[in-house]
Design goal:
It is built from four helices and four strands, in the order αβααββαβ.
């Protein structure tokens, strides 16, 4: 009897683990997910953005920001773009040139993360450097 019980359990387990006969053979370019571009981006301070627009009117397209990454995921976004820059020695991005154009209203790097070695996240070196995940 023990043999038949073990055999029955084994057959049930095998049936449960058998591959699903419904195969989704849809090409990958047929899938869509909701996401955000430059998902980490915070707004450029108005005075700096005005200075950038004075230099190049096309800079108006940089006037946007996003909520934090966790909040985006909570809303259902599943495609996040994160631009990563290497900084193996630290300090490479500690003083963006935009800080010299216009004094910042908010401190740029209050936790001194940019002087430490490691990867950094921001949009454009020097001018669009505010990020929700430095």
């Amino acid at each position: 009897m023990k043999y038949f019980t073990t055999l029955g359990c084994l057959l049930i387990a095998l049936a449960a683990c058998s591959p699903n006969k419904q195969v989704d053979d849809r090409p990958i370019n047929q899938y869509q997910v909701i996401g955000s571009h430059n998902s980490y981006k915070q707004a450029i301070e108005p005075a700096l953005l005005d200075s950038m627009i004075a230099r190049d009117p096309k800079a108006t397209c940089l006037q946007y920001s996003h909520i934090g990454l966790a909040d985006q995921l909570d809303l259902g976004l599943r495609n996040l773009e994160i631009d990563v820059y290497g900084d193996s020695l630290g300090g490479r991005y500690a003083h963006p040139e935009g800080l010299d154009w216009v004094p910042p209203v908010q401190p740029y790097d209050p936790d001194s993360l940019m002087i430490q070695p490691g990867f950094k996240v921001f949009h454009m070196i020097g001018v669009d450097f505010r990020s929700s995940c430095s």
